[in-house]
Amino acid sequence: MVKQQQKVANKVLFCDTDLITTQIYSQQYFGKIPQELTELEREVSYDLYCLLNIDTPWVADSLRDFGHRRAEMFAVFKEELGKRNIPYLLIEGTWEERFEKVRQQVETMLQMH
After folding, report:
1. Which residue of 3, 13, 47, 65 has the smallest Cβ count within 10 Å?
2. Number of domains within the chain
3. CA 71 to the chain's CA centroid
4. Per the domain annotation, does 3 fall within a domain?
5. 5-16 in b/e burial notation, b at 16+ Cβ within 10 A?
6. How far apart are CA 7 and CA 94, in angstroms?
């Protein structure tokens, strides 16, 4: 599916939930990671991975949970990126500061390509 999205993206494709995220939550909810997720991950690479810090207030909704485990889950995401040697940009601060940091990084990347 990501490859299809890449084909129609206009220079930039943001993925909120990727195969790494799906694997992490599969492990959390079901205690295992389906082999298909690991195999599919081999087909995907990213130019930039943004890791959002937990320095903003938790806002519950019908999709998000683990609010009481934010620090633990942040550590899991950071560890999984490290295991894969995936560089990431740590995003923190106010919502405006976060947006600006990502915007500047994307602009820089677009100028390089």
Report:
1. 3
2. 2
3. 16
4. no
5. eeeeeeeeeebe
6. 33
DSSP SS3 for 52: strand
- The strand pairing partners of 91, in sequence order, are 52
Torsion angle (degrees, nearest 10) of CA 59, 60, 65, 69 = 40
Give the separation between CA 22 and CA 113, rounded to whole angstroms. Answer: 29
- Alpha-carbon gap, residue 66 to 112, rounded angstroms: 38
| Cα–Cα distance measured from residue 41 to residue 44, given in angstroms and rounded to the nearest whole number | 5
The 10s digit of each residue's pLDDT in 16-66 is: 889 999 999 999 999 999 999 999 999 888 888 999 999 999 888 887 788
Distance of CA 98 to CAs 1, 41, 61, Å? 27, 27, 21
Residue type, 66: F
Are 83 and 101 members of one domain? yes
Tokens of 23: 């694997």
Q: Do residue 74 and residue 107 come from a single domain?
A: yes
The residue count of the chain comes to 113
